[in-house]
């Protein structure tokens, strides 16, 4: 029985053409060899399993080939590999430098491959500097590392740096397919894509996973076998979860999440995978971005079908909710509840991506000239016929009384007045755009007729239709109405002699002042309450209250908020002529702020032993 050789060793590339996913670097190295333009110090850096050491060995072999060597010649005696993880001292570097001086017996170059070079000690790096900068003509150094940031800058400046990238899922899947065909294994394309995704850009990891799954499933490599063996969530879980979310089926999505947890997956894995699923659905909605998906053709077709059921607005909202859960997961004390709450939020999204909010509906017409009172008096809007909707409006007067009759009164009712029963009359005020109050006397069920409207002193008639048109605020009619309104306001000036002016005492005022401060403090207006409490108010004459504050900032704060205070005091003291006088006295500020020295002096006056304590322990302020 032949010993088993893992695929990572069995299928290690022997030429630059066999290297997967590093075409830019391999082409550069090939051109450098052909044009004799190869540097003597090279640094290969990048993540694990992407071909750094493999490329170093291929390069070391090819630079010694001149066309006369045998096919099986590998120049192993010209290639020296040093593991810097176990040979990281100055003595190890000193031995290496001694070997470098000896020229090769066969071939043109001696190649020194130092793997994991970032593990060298600082003194070893410094001992290596001179040789790395001026090596012998026959020596080439190839340094390989996964952590370039740990290498000192003086080493980096002496090397030609090649950054190896992660292997894409597509390239890894194609190489796995090639290996499966060589071994006579029937592998589903989706299964190979899952292996490539699990490898996370490392070809060596992908080959190791491939060997493990083949040992489990044999010659038939299916998607189900791969997901079961690797313990990864299948696409089916996320497709089913998305369908349940689109159906707003909260109970079923919670049961699906519970089943996922029972299989050994944590909530973070589930929610992050769901967010990635939403991302793939969004990518599928545009032909130009479908290439960004790293899945097989079968899975890609399913994504295309489900993406047609989802709106872009829904996916944006869902991505935002899922990403927010992903960020909060590690800091949450109840992680399962966090994921379940997220799933409930996702299932509550409407298909268009947002909930219907009636408060967001804004009326198109903010100002109207007149609204028929019959549509509002009974609480139920009623249609208004165009033939009976001419209403008289006097724009020069503030109130207009309109009397409208109804049908004949029933027996036993009060005798009508001007054709209207008294017990059925009522007054309703309707606000008009030009601030004119239309006072309407109207029975329970109003019928507006032209005959009754003719009895009113008509200045201007406005025809009101079902859809009222908005009048510009700059129209001539609106400007005239505004001017008339200003004149009416002057006529309605308040007679100050009729306002209350009851005398009050300073103690009574201070009591109500304290009540107001307590009230706003309970309401959460702590800053204003603190400012009003900083001084005791005084009464300097019959109606003037005076307070003195330590700074202008407090004065501005009280002046900005004094309206509520004055109105409160006017109401409680029954005096409409109360006013507030605020002054600032900077000297009073000193009692609110002390320097550390002043504090210490105050404490020492109260207790002289504090000074002895400070001197005994040599304390500073």
What does this structure look like?
The chain has 621 residues and is of the alpha/beta class. It is 44% helix and 11% strand. The protein contains 23 helices and 17 strands. It has a 5-stranded parallel beta sheet, with helices on one face. The radius of gyration is 45 Å and the shape is elongated. The model is unreliable at 352-473 (pLDDT under 50).
Strand-helix topology:
Layout: H1 7-10, H2 23-34, E1 41-45, H3 52-62, E2 79-83, H4 90-100, E3 110-115, H5 122-133, E4 139-145, H6 153-156, E5 160-163, H7 169-182, E6 186-187, H8 189-199, H9 203-217, E7 220-221, H10 223-230, H11 235-246, H12 250-262, H13 267-283, H14 297-307, H15 312-328, H16 335-347, E8 390-393, E9 401-403, E10 416-417, E11 420-421, E12 427-431, E13 437-441, H17 450-453, E14 460-463, H18 476-491, H19 506-522, H20 526-532, E15 538-539, E16 544-549, H21 552-573, E17 579-584, H22 596-606, H23 609-617
Parallel strand pairs: 1-4, 1-5, 2-3, 3-4, 6-7, 9-13, 16-17
Antiparallel strand pairs: 8-14, 10-11, 12-13, 15-16
Main β-sheet, spatial strand arrangement = 2-3-4-1-5
| Contiguous runs where pLDDT drops below 50 for at least 5 residues | 352-473
The geometry reads as: elongated
End-to-end gap: 85 Å
Share in β-strands: 5-15%
């Amino acid at each position: 029985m032949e010993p088993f050789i893992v695929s990572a060793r069995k299928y290690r590339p022997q030429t630059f053409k066999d290297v997967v996913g590093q075409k830019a670097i391999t082409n550069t190295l090939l051109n450098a060899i052909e044009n004799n333009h190869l540097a003597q110090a090279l640094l290969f850096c990048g993540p694990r399993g992407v071909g750094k050491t493999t490329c170093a060995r291929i390069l070391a072999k090819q630079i010694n080939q001149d066309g006369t060597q045998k096919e099986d010649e590998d120049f192993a005696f010209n290639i020296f590999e040093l593991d810097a993880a176990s040979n990281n001292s100055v003595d190890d570097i000193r031995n290496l430098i001694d070997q470098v001086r000896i020229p090769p017996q066969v071939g043109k170059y001696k190649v020194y491959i130092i793997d994991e070079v970032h593990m060298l000690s600082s003194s070893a790096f410094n001992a290596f500097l001179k040789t790395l900068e001026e090596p012998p003509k026959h020596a080439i150094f190839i340094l390989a590392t996964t952590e370039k940031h740990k290498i000192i800058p003086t080493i980096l400046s002496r090397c030609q740096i090649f950054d190896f990238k992660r292997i894409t899922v597509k390239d890894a899947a194609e190489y796995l397919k090639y290996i499966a065909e060589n071994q006579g294994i029937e592998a589903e394309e989706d299964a190979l894509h899952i292996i490539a995704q699990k490898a996370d850009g490392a070809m060596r990891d992908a080959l190791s996973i491939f060997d493990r799954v083949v040992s489990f499933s044999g010659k038939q490599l299916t998607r189900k076998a791969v997901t079961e063996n690797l313990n990864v969530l299948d696409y089916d879980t996320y497709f089913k979860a998305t369908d349940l979310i689109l159906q707003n089926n909260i109970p079923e999505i919670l049961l699906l999440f519970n089943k996922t947890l029972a299989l050994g997956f944590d909530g973070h894995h589930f929610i992050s995978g769901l967010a990635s699923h939403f991302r793939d659905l969004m990518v599928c909605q545009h032909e130009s971005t479908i290439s960004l998906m790293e899945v097989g053709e079968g899975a890609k077709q399913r994504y295309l079908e489900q993406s047609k059921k989802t709106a872009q607005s829904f996916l944006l909202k869902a991505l935002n909710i899922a990403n927010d859960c992903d960020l909060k997961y590690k800091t949450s004390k109840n992680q399962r509840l966090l994921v379940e709450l997220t799933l409930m939020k996702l299932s509550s999204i409407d298909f268009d991506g947002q909930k219907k909010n009636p408060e967001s509906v804004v009326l198109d017409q903010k100002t109207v000239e007149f609204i028929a009172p019959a549509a509002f008096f009974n609480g139920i809007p009623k249609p208004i016929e165009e033939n009976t909707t001419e209403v008289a409006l006097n724009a020069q007067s503030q109130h207009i009384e309109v009397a409208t009759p109804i049908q004949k009164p029933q027996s036993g009712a009060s005798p009508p007045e001007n054709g209207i029963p008294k017990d059925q009359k009522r007054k309703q005020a309707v606000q008009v755009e030009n601030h004119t109050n239309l006072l309407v006397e109207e029975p329970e069920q109003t019928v507006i007729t032209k005959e009754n409207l003719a009895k009113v002193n008509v200045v201007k008639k406005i025809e009101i239709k079902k859809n009222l048109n908005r009048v510009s605020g700059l129209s001539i009619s609106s400007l005239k109405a505004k001017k008339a309104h200003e004149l009416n306001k002057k006529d309605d000036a308040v007679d100050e002699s009729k306002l209350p002016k009851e005398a009050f005492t300073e103690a009574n005022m201070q009591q109500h002042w304290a009540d107001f401060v307590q009230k706003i403090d309970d309401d959460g207006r702590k800053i204003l309450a603190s400012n009003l409490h900083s001084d005791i108010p005084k009464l300097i004459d019959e109606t003037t209250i005076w307070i003195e504050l330590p700074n202008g900032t407090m004065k501005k704060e009280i002046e900005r908020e004094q309206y509520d205070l004055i109105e409160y005091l006017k109401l409680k003291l029954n005096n409409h002529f109360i006013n507030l006088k605020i002054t600032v006295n900077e000297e009073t500020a000193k009692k609110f702020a002390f320097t550390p020295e002043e504090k210490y002096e105050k404490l020492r006056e109260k207790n002289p032993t504090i000074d002895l304590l400070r001197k005994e322990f040599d304390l500073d302020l």
